[in-house]
Amino acid sequence: MSEINSFFQAKNVAVVGVSKDKQKIGSIVFNNFLNKKFKGKVFPVNPKYEKVFNKKCFSSVKEIPEKIDLVIVAVKNVIVPAIVKDCVEKKVKAIIVLSAGFSETGKKELEQKILTELKKSNGKTRLIGPNCLGVYSSESFIDSLFLPKNRLQRPSKGNIAFISQSGALGSAVLDWTALKNYGLSSFVSYGNALDVDESDLLEYFYHDKETKVITMYIEGVKKGRKFFQTLKKVNKKKPVIILKGGASNAGNQATLSHTGSLAGSSQVFDAVIKQCNAVKAETLQELFDFARTLSINPKPKGRKTQIITNGGGYGVLTTDCVENSGLKFAKLSRQTLKKIRSFSRDHAVLKNPIDLTGDADNEMFEKTLTYCLEDKNVDLIVLILLFQVPTINEQLIPRIAGIIKHYNKPVVSVSVGGAFSEKQRKKLEEKGILTFDNSPEAVKSLKALVEYYKK
Amino acid sequence: MSEINSFFQAKNVAVVGVSKDKQKIGSIVFNNFLNKKFKGKVFPVNPKYEKVFNKKCFSSVKEIPEKIDLVIVAVKNVIVPAIVKDCVEKKVKAIIVLSAGFSETGKKELEQKILTELKKSNGKTRLIGPNCLGVYSSESFIDSLFLPKNRLQRPSKGNIAFISQSGALGSAVLDWTALKNYGLSSFVSYGNALDVDESDLLEYFYHDKETKVITMYIEGVKKGRKFFQTLKKVNKKKPVIILKGGASNAGNQATLSHTGSLAGSSQVFDAVIKQCNAVKAETLQELFDFARTLSINPKPKGRKTQIITNGGGYGVLTTDCVENSGLKFAKLSRQTLKKIRSFSRDHAVLKNPIDLTGDADNEMFEKTLTYCLEDKNVDLIVLILLFQVPTINEQLIPRIAGIIKHYNKPVVSVSVGGAFSEKQRKKLEEKGILTFDNSPEAVKSLKALVEYYKK
């Protein structure tokens, strides 16, 4: 196992700073590993105790009689260099330092001490942090998040990795992805990036089989050249979507007080994203909308978009979105139109949008979707399903999922409404159809998909 | 009771086109009135039956032995003119024609016939529709929505009116407002606007005591001058927020096939909104975000915004939003800063944003909010509460609600996260604190508030 892999796949883990108090950071982290999901072994370290939580407690990492892959450190800042020294001597591959009180509060010399110890390993020991939340893996269940599970839900398994420079933002977003059921492969909050930085993590996810798409919240990058080269390489294989905090002048000033990173102008950062053809998100919602779209949908042939709806007003609003996004409108062939005319209502409007109107049934939707997907003038589809009308129902969902799979063209759906629609939206997602509760997000996501594959 | 009032406050209602089949439009509407919430009387009309749903059925409106305020019509299009004739002769004040198949499908002459009958009343009988969903009032429980309640939830009581030109869009949005718990006073879908149009409805809500803010989805306006004058007058008293469907060229073309209205260029429409100082929304989410902000928050003194957070990253992102929105940053007085410094953590950052950091507790939030509200350099506050950390809890919510009420300055809060945060978000809303799950929406809403009051 390589050093960076050990952060995500460690078998033997030690937690330094476990105490008898359940509420303490070290104890919360230690208990994260005691659930049945983590398949490896975990060792508590604290010289004060013989036993904690019914487990033998070790006075130091070096005292543990087995090989240790990962050490998670939750002790007072001044003690951290000594712990790191122990870890290097023990040939531990990976260290996560959760403790705060380093360069972010002006204590740079303390970070230098850590670095001095770490260098003795000649790169055989790597370190994430300090001042971070560390790692959550939905595959191995390595979990250094020191916020209790009743406050911070863990996300379900998925193929999106999330890298966050900010711990608090990362944890709030992680919690939110759990609520929204956006599956993640891994989450990393890397804090002060004393050793492992955003580029190293990108490189890890480049190889990680569980990850298809990478999302990042970044305020600033210290090693610009390294980041540029890594991003360029990684983004060619897997889409990287980036939300830059501090993109405005005032925001940039605020990052100084936060992560201490001044990235230079956001124009430079934008240029880097553009040159690498990575995907830029303007909001956290976009970060995950774009990631989900890119993780589910195939490569589009072009940008010609067909809208299919059973509600005229939503068709109109979606048309506005498509025009404003810079996507193009598909023009169905005469043959396709003739086929759809043969079964649709007399008052259905067969243009773009196709408005099957409020009395359209399951079969009309299925056939219309099929003929539109067959038409070579169509590259992308926005499928608007308003479930307020009883003429369509949930039996439609597996059928259209089958159709979409068969034709291998990008389709996003929009379903707006209350409790019943919410249920259908979940079913659509379960069947692998990306579903939004409003059109602007759906269309922006298709645009991001097209932009990523345009080269 | 005036004619237009009768649409929303009728005591005696007749439904024409009730049948023995529960699924039929007339039957669904009739049954809407049979619940205990509607305080008036309802009469079914259908010449085919003696009795429907255990009630005496009348062969015509004229046969009903009582005065009728409102007649809801759900019969075949060709029969509608005769029904309207009956209503005029019966001196009915208000008619809602749900039936479709008129000018929207090219049958203009059928609409003319209705109009001819209606004119005989000399304005004493008014008509909403045809081709509409009609009215829902959360005060009187008048409910002509012919979509079943298991598909279309009804919203809770509130002070926002929603006027929609599109029926399907209106119903989906209504359903969605119920899910989101955005309270509404009334909803109207006015369809082809043969008689009562958007301006008449604006005028009604101008006087309506239940309504504080008016939202509109409009594709096009027939009587431009009337609309301009009414909007100007109404918006001075109550904020009117408008989402224009078909704002793009392609969208404008799509409205032609939908509501048949070509509003001319959206530039003209934008100019009307601007001249009236009404509020423009770009999305349905904005339509209701802005409405809720304007219905809850007091008039701001200016645009100087203070951000308070316990998560640095969210502070940074919110700073970006404030700068991009055109709001200004508040600069706290020395005195205020000194007060906050006296109780906050050493590592707290007391600038704008104020980052109380992840270990801030309830009291620190309460005091900081109080001192910021007291500071005359602060006009608006964005309060970011990340509930992932156990140092703050729900006891904070009533306390800050009390503080906000006392100082009478606009405050919006942002709370991002999973199940626990979702619960707190609901509690915040229950206490009258507008709460968003992301910063961009919160800041845009404050901007809309400032813009409305700027004159």
Q: What does this protein look like?
A:
The structure is a homodimer of 455-residue chains. With 455 residues, chain A is α/β, with parallel strands linked by helices. Chain A has 16 helices and 20 strands. In chain A, the strands form four sheets. In chain A, strands 14, 15, 16, 17, 18, 19 and 20 form a seven-stranded mixed sheet that branches. In chain A, helix 15 (419-430) links the parallel strand 19 (411-414) and strand 20 (435-436). The model of chain A has no long low-confidence stretch (mean pLDDT 95). Chains A and B meet through helix 5, helix 8, helix 11 and helix 15 of A and helix 5, helix 8, helix 11 and helix 15 of B.
Short description:
The structure is a homodimer of 455-residue chains. Chain A has 455 residues and is α/β, with parallel strands linked by helices.
What is this structure's SSE topology?
The structure is a homodimer of 455-residue chains.
Chain A: H1 3-9, E1 12-16, H2 25-33, E2 41-45, E3 51-52, E4 55-56, E5 70-73, H3 80-89, E6 94-97, H4 108-119, E7 126-128, E8 134-137, E9 157-164, H5 167-180, E10 184-189, H6 198-207, E11 213-218, H7 224-237, E12 240-244, H8 249-258, H9 266-275, E13 279-281, H10 284-296, E14 304-309, H11 312-325, E15 328-329, H12 334-343, E16 349-350, E17 354-355, H13 362-374, E18 380-384, H14 396-407, E19 411-414, H15 419-430, E20 435-436, H16 439-453
